[in-house]
Hints:
This protein is mostly helical. The protein has helices at residues 12-15, 39-44, 50-69, 77-98. The N and C termini lie far apart (60 Å). InterPro entries: F1F0-ATPsyn_F_prd.
Amino acid sequence: xxxxxxxxxxxxxxxxxxxxxxxxxxxxxxxxxxxxxxxxxxxxxxxxxxxxxxxxxxxxxxxxxxxxxxxxxxxxxxxxxxxxxxxxxxxxxxxxxxxxxxxxxxx
Length: 107
C-alpha cells in the first residue's frame, strides 16, 4: 500500500463508499470484551508496523472529526478538546523546568 492508496482489504463492491474512519481488515474481539487471561494473545494479534500504527492514528483522527467537527451543530467541544490537549502537551514538555519552582512548607 502506497501513500494515498486504499487499504488492501477494502473492496468497493462489498464495502460501498470508502470511509477513512473504518477498519477494513479482519474483525477481532473488541478491547472492551477481552478478558485479562486473553490480553496477551489479543495484543499479539495486533499489527505493530509503523504503517499500521499510522493507520490507527488516522482512523482515530477521522472518527474524532466525524463525531465532533463535521456535524451541523458541532458546538465548541472540539475547540475545548484541542485547547486542553495543547495545555497538557506544553505542561508535559515544560515539567522539568516547572518542578524546580515548587513551594515547600519546610526548607
